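#structure-requests
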Amino acid sequence: MLAKFFHRARPHGSKKDGYRAVPDEIKKQRRLYYIVIAIIALAFIATTVNTSFNPFIIFFNMENFIAFIVNDMIPPNFGRAVGLWDSLIQTISMAFLATFVGGIISFCLCFLASFQTSPSSVVVRLVRGLASLQRNVPTIIWLFIFRMTFGIGITIGFVALLFNTVGFLTRMFAEVVDEVGNESMEALDSTGSAYLPKLAQCVIPAAIPGFVSWLLFSVEINIRSAGIVGAMGGGGIGMLLMGHLNAFRYRTAFAFILVLAAVIIIIGVITDYLRERVLSK
């Protein structure tokens, strides 16, 4: 009797009752999380066994890594970093030029890749398919293809970045047009407006903030990629950096690495700030 009384007298919302009152949706969500975690853990174990890679080897050899940095790379030798600033300007110029040329091409293609503004669904699939091919093939692969044809130099670095940029921005610009063009296009369709006036008066003004935001994001991506592209034969600071590494001039190479990292960080901060300002308007 006492147990029954206290059970009835237990205030509503107690810990035990709250646990029993967990909705079925939350329980299903928890089970899904556990399944996903188990799959990730099993995939990690399977790939580790399959590749015969010890994921803890980095921690075991951290002492050697620190010794290499301290003894062979510090202090950085800026005195022998001949051509550092010229090659840095080349790298920045290559990244900016690939971004803005790619932006112009993508601006022209995005209206054909958008479901709201394209004249045909076949054209949409064709343009999006080509953009996906360009975007999903890594920049390094494009670089290797062009290097076999044109040799090494800043030209192939620019073209490799351009191909990847066009694929990326075409898809992103098309998504922006899809978001802003639906209601606006329907409103102008009811007035009998022609195709180009609809784009100029309605879609483009509404899509400009999104275009600028993705263009700035692409600048940041291309600045990072330009150093890697250069190291693989695409010219700029990456090519000189790889030359110093191959010649075992690690302190000089470290000077190149520090300057390149600083430039990437600064440009990243600037583009993030500009993107926030553009999107907040």
